[in-house]
């Protein structure tokens, strides 16, 4: 009798041998993890190639384009033998990492200073940036930010190099597919370029952003290296270099002349709808109040050599009659014997004073400018709290100036330069006006600093940042107007202006570098000397008011108030 048997079951597939010493689950996960790592490597490389160097251009659509650098890179790698291919991948990965870091620097500089990073000149700006961080978020926070930035730089270079190496292995492993894909992408790139196809406005499908940025910075570096020679040629020409003191500023004899810079007071403060209603109201009210006190004024615009920061360069431009738009030019200027507005007044026998509340350490530039006396943050008797980079409220600065210089009995004619810093970023915390008799040593401002928002709170919210900026400009203007209304006399000639526009975060992309400038006095003859300038009456220049480059002011001013030559 035969035994019935069930049909034979299909044989189980062979189980691949386990890797010695590797758990079964890990052996199954490893191929999946490898594919994910490859995808991430490609995303990182393509993302870095398509990343713009301006924050305003970063949109999701930006990364849906064809980067010609990747297509060419694939073609070159496929054509090379193994050893040169690996060397090129290593160098290309590290290079792409450096270019990505350069893009991040550009993004930061465009956001704050409205220009790209300059590798030749801008390395010297890291020290002022550290000071800004320290005074904004404290020493520990600044150190943490620096350490984090260094680690980020290292991480970007390492990750980019590893990603390019992994992408290269993937291309070689799938050589036939990669060759076909490269050929198709080359054709698509040229077709899109010829047709001018765009994903969105300003973002062409045929992308060559990274190559363009590298070329741009290479040209910028060549130009920057030649800049010093060009600057020296311009600086050698000075129409007033040898003018005797008795032939300078004769129309201002006996006058007290004060040049006051209001930090970040730009054209947008009086024209942008976000700020103009409040700031314009202060200027209009100030015009009426000062007119009632016997003062008349004229206003126009100057185009600053910088934006978003670099106040010292704008002030140097204004003072020297030279275009100071980088740190190398600034250093060359302050080590020269160039005649400045300050030294012209000194040569003509005015007492010259620098009231510099923002100076917190040694400042040898004071000797270059020709000040008889420099007052800084440490020698004006301020006992109140710090207000970030403002160091002290503008009302205290003006009160100290009155006590130490302008209000002194029996003094001779005075020329002073006085930056007001309460409107300096980060615009938090902010002071408010009090009775002049209550200013004292500044300790009265303590509760204001504690009650105000912190810089971190303000800068987390763009609307708060703009509101803080607007409030700070209103405060600085009110302080100056109130000071002139209370203490100004018949001999006063006040010139006040902005040093630069605030950061593009506040002005928007494409804003001018113009700043308002005003001359105010009770002496109509002083204003008659500049009637040919065609400036607008009042403290607020109109939209059609004349605009000059800031470096032209020195010669125009000296010409207007000195005898014809």
TrEMBL record:
Transmembrane segments: 32-51, 63-80, 87-113, 142-165, 177-200
Database matches in Gene3D superfamilies: Alkaline Phosphatase, subunit A
SUPFAM superfamilies assigned to the protein according to its UniProt record, in alphabetical order: Alkaline phosphatase-like (SSF53649)
Chain positions covered by the region annotation Disordered: 1-24
Keyword Transport set for record: no
Keywords: Membrane, Transmembrane, Transmembrane helix
Name of the protein in its database record: Sulfatase
